């Protein structure tokens, strides 16, 4: 499709990109000299004024303007960032974090113990609180033994995931001036990252290189951001050369772009068929096994997702690289013979692929002997019925790790007896015990093994039939190297992103 034949909304968005990114070389606002600036097209505009206590925090992280005490590696293990070291104290509820020297905020003020205390205390008092602190009682104080160099973080209950929690972009550390008396947090000019946020609104944002960055100056002069919700327009911006990096290219547009510009990143999101274990046809484990045996994943991936997804072997996919090697063998239940068994299969329209997945599954289940009736609505109008167990089967696209980078919270929510999102109505004491063991295990190999044991029991119950793991498609023009391709969508443009 040429630029002149774009739909009106898409054309308008491309023109906006062209206006925002009119120059290819600009001087840095911090005296770094001239250099190329990254032109970035993003999916969603800020929803909460770029408050770090909201999901807007992930934009601040992807722009490398706000930083956290720790980061996560590919396996979800906490690594040093603004904190150079951390360890649990003798009290299992208390962790000590040693802070990095020589860090300054973009407003010139120093990064100190008081900065950390101010940020984390403000987070605990925010309304609504950052999602990562749901159900967590947390206090932070200077370490009496080294009040200028370290903080103590104490939780109400022992929590082995405290470092992982503090890696959440929603707990990025900002300068004291960012926190207003009215509870509003202003990140502009108040981060510690390699790029200083200069301005932002609902259509654009500008960031300049910060020469005082503790890790050394960034290789790009800055970032010019445009928010382009229309997927066709984002793809067109890449195709017409008005953007260097594009978030979330739609599957339907990927084939229209140069294959060298398309990069598929596995997401920690699984498309799953949940079966109602409490009542109806799937109360019988053998009937659930018959449904599981009927599912053919490859045609769904090939047709609905045009091959741009990964066939599921479990609840956790390739976005968690440790999951597959740690997955134990399962013993599947024997399926019943099904003849005309009626079931109601439900899903929602908000994700365009799911109704198509429902059509494929209906055909597969009917071929196995079920009689299938579909129920499809908008998510806001169907969620309550799904959680109440109204349907026999429900197709859901579900994030499998939350802000801590750990899947236990998702598994507990969806499959524990008192799980808050238990669409399968599952209640199995053995599964609850496995989830409790995983929750208490220390991060690393021990926790991973416990998680996979819980996954094994859940899958052997046939309460959930994982179908596929989704990917996000990232577009890159090739004008810049070292653009991050992050399955957690925390990093994108970094200090290492450089003109090609």
TrEMBL record:
**Entries under SUPFAM superfamilies matching the protein:** Periplasmic binding protein-like II
Cellular component GO terms, alphabetical:
ATP-binding cassette (ABC) transporter complex; periplasmic space
Residue span of the signal peptide, if any?
1-27
Question: One Pfam family from the UniProt entry?
Answer: SBP_bac_5
Q: Name one GO molecular function term.
A: peptide transmembrane transporter activity
Under InterPro entries, the record lists: Peptide/Ni-bd (IPR030678), SBP_5 (IPR039424), SBP_5_dom (IPR000914)
Coiled-coil stretches are none
According to its UniProt entry, one GO biological process term is: peptide transport
Transmembrane region(s): none
Does the entry feature the keyword Membrane, yes or no?
no
Keyword Transferase present in the record's keywords: the answer is no
Solute-binding protein family domain location is 79-420
Question: What are the record keywords, sorted?
Answer: Signal
Q: What is this protein called?
A: Peptide/nickel transport system substrate-binding protein
Q: Which organism is it from?
A: Catenuloplanes indicus
